[in-house]
Every structure is written in structure tokens, then in C-alpha cells.
Amino acid sequence: MTASNMPAQTMPRRQALYRLRKFSLLALGLSALWLSGAMPCAAKDGEELFVIVNLSNPLAKLDKKELIALYTGRSRNFPGGGPAEVFDQPRDSAQREAFYLALTGMDLAQIDSYWARLLFTGRVVPPKMLGSDQALLAEVKRNPRAIAYLSSPPTDGQAKLVMTLSRSN
Q1: Gap between the Cα atoms of 137 and 154, Å rounded
Q2: pLDDT by residue (tens digit) across 1-14?
Q3: Eight-class DSSP state of 123
Q4: Intra-chain end-to-end CA distance of the chain, in Å
């Protein structure tokens, strides 16, 4: 059966399945590169970024693989099993770019493209973007399920630091 005599509903579905398969292979390849250490992990200008959760969250620390799972939509739960609500810096911020470079080795264009493909499937939702470190900290303090990252460490009693990302991560 050729494309010209295929039912109209079959083509979009086949195209969607092809794109999903292609994306899955890309994600698998990127994961393999990251696990092998071949992908770069560098925050801009030696910046450190501080991953935080609510003080009531039982999580003591996260490893990089667990953080990637949360920030790429592969997991909706913290490693202990509790639900997670993932929050992000503003779309074009330097902190967001440094975070994703340090975490995944991908720049903002690649991350935005990644999320555009995932949104096409309708199965996952990207992290919610808030306007500033202050807004992110306020959300983490308010929401026991929240996870976010800041450009400066939280002071005692504000939030729990579970990971620090830098050039050496």
C-alpha cells in the first residue's frame, strides 16, 4: 500500500509513530553518551547551581541520574516514591542554560526541542517555569512536592539542599 492510497487517518498515526520511534532512539543514544561520560558537563563560568526541596521532604540527596530523570520527564516521583513537582528557571535565563548544560550536556535549543517532541506525545509536561530564584524558593518553601534549582544556596531553614551542580559534576 502506498501513501497515495492509504486511508487518511493512517498517515498521521504512522508519522507520529515514526517520530516517536526516532525520538526514543535519540533519547536512548543521549542517555548512553551521558552514562559513558562522553557528553560534556559544565556550568557556565564555574557557576554552582543548588538543587533544593521542601524541608519536609524526606529526601537527603539526589544523584545526577535521578535528577536527570525528574528534569527530563522520565520520572514523576522522587527516588523514595513520593510525587515530585518540578520547577524551572525562566526560559532564556543564564541559570537555566547552565543547569541543563551541567546536567545533560544539552543547550537550551536542544532542551526546548526535546520538550517540544515530548509534548507532541501528550504524556508528559515540562517543568513549570517561574520568574526568579525568589519565586522558586517561595514555591519550594510552600510546596512539599516541589524541586527546583537556584543560583545561590538557600539559607538555613529555607529549603533542603539535595545536590550542587558545577563543572565537576
Answers
A1: 8
A2: 555 555 555 557 66
A3: S
A4: 51
Name the packing angle between helices 64-71 and 94-104 (round to 10°). 120
CATH number assigned to the domain with residue range 40-165, chosen from the 4 options 3.90.550.10, 2.40.30.60, 3.40.190.10, 3.50.30.20: 3.40.190.10
Convert the pLDDT of each residue in 128-168 to its tens digit.
999 999 999 999 999 999 999 999 999 888 999 999 998 54
Q: Which residues on adjacent β-strands are paired with residue 161?
A: 52
pTM, entire model: 0.70
**Residue 88 in 3-state DSSP?**
strand
Residues 124, 79: Cα–Cα separation, whole Å: 18
Q: How far is CA 93 from the centre of its chain?
A: 15
Q: Residues 6 or more apart from 16 whose CB is under 8 A from it?
A: 120
87-136 confidence digits (pLDDT tens): 999 988 999 999 999 999 999 999 999 998 888 887 788 999 999 999 99
